[in-house]
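Lab notes, practical 5.
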Amino acid sequence: MAVLAALAGFGLAEAALRFAYPTLPSLAGLVGPTTWQEGEAIQKCNARALKRVEPPEAAPRGRKLLVVGDSVALGFGVQRNARFGAILAGLLARSGQPWSEVNGAFAGGTACITLALSKAAMTETHADLAVVALFADDLMEAPRFWVNGHRVAFPDTVHMPALRWIIERSYAANTIWWGTETLLFNRAQSLSRDRETLKTFHDSLDQVREQGIASGTPVILTLLPPAGLPACAKGATEPEVCELGEELDRIAARLDEWWPGWVDLRTVLNDGDYRLDVEKADLRLDVHPNEAGHVRIANGLYPAASAAVAR
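Output from the prediction step:
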């Protein structure tokens, strides 16, 4: 009887979940603006299937400033004209020549996704200047991601074929696996501590630099901190956020070696509260900067940007 009751409960749960979710619960965050192909590309560090460049509201005027990064560069929580790329374009336009931002950012990506998108976007946009913005949590590589404000756990992180087959087909089994994996396992791997991932990161940096040279696009590389550092944020946050300060320092040391002249903005938000008000914006964390934070970032980038386009 207990077995029959368990099977009946499982069946009811399966039916309810299929009614509630348009896809597997662990992939629910990919429904809407993103697709499974995009989620798969995030996991496999393959930018070919991702949204490449955001269509501008109007045809770019004058010179083009390409901005590539994650949700911070995309401007989560602020208006398009208030994100740091648009502000920086306005600062550059003070020289008398019009500039327009072309945004190639992708929310939910990791560091290697940002770099892969940079190469593709420079080829497509023929930008006059590119800003490649690595955000703090891009540096924590993991099989679980936040996409559009939802935690996403990909079924193919399960290595047992039979178990993966069930998880990929049953909504109830997928929910049980998703909850257990989220609750019990922290597979976060900091970029700097994994030799293979760090080598991929290094190679990707070289490829971005080479693509900039080939396309005649000056490239500014920067490293952005969370608006909430020190980043042991309370509430619905990733546990690895607490390690981001140390990870930023480790990656900064690598960038000093691998990309001389990169723009260090690790302290740009230290002297005030530049966190997004998450109660007013439907976002997952206050690590995203508010409008004043975007102004600070743009001002921090401006000296390097003006010098790059003046050459």
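Observations recorded by the TA: The chain has one domain: 33-142+188-310. The CA atoms of residues 101 and 264 lie 21 Å apart.
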